[in-house]
């Protein structure tokens, strides 16, 4: 026997197999699908598998690392969302979506981080007394962008008005990119130290914020148009048309990451830019291949991510602080509602 050589791919393949079985059972039971979203089921299944691995010591697989997540798992999900975005409706309400995504995300990050820092000064968090405010802002940037997967699933089920759907969907798509930009900005500030920051650092961060967002968007649009141009010459080799779409969109993501720009915004707008033009150039069979392959890759990535979250939760290296966790959830809920209501009011007045 040589289980050690194939241990990691075997365990991960087994996880995906169990997740697929779980997804089948979940959708065959309408009662459960109405009670909680599919992502919760996958995380719970991951926790169960993690418990089995932890207590039986059957196998050890490294958890999902940041590099694996951003380089391999995230791009298929974002590409799927951008490629199948209803373009006309999205751009008709782009101003409102940006208000929710940019202003709302910055609001959530600052209010949550400052509130947690203020409470840490009172000693309520115990060992976390007087953590630097930059550390709190770094943490709040990670949790400020709420991903409304469950809300979108409910919207699709009850067929809500399409403008409301595109506002929520567009915000969920763009605020991830904004969050990544904020995270890297506060990460750089933390390295410098809060007492070493000068006005030039804040100005450079503001300029960097715009550069990362706009630069990533520009790279995505350029690669999208390049894909549309290349697919004009594939009439005699239809079989490679889907390859160009997947590879060039992935290159757009990696190209943005090379220059420390927003890969999320890059691959999003690459998908948006290429869709209208590539569909006119590629065959019907290629369109079908792209559609189902893209959906399959996105679903597989989501499944692996949620399963890894559940599995990586089960280990003996946790540092739990009930006050910090509870107040974080409270601030996320309160400030999210306040920010959305304020943004909605400003948008309504502008209209």
From TrEMBL:
One protein family per Pfam: Na_H_Exchanger
GO terms under biological process: regulation of intracellular pH; sodium ion import across plasma membrane
Main subcellular localisation: membrane
Signal peptide span: none
Entry similarity comment: Belongs to the monovalent cation:proton antiporter 1 (CPA1) transporter (TC 2.A.36) family.
PANTHER family associated with the record: SODIUM/HYDROGEN EXCHANGER, SODIUM_HYDROGEN EXCHANGER
Name of the protein described by the UniProt record: Sodium/hydrogen exchanger
Organism: Hirondellea gigas
High-level lineage: Eukaryota, Metazoa, Ecdysozoa, Arthropoda, Crustacea
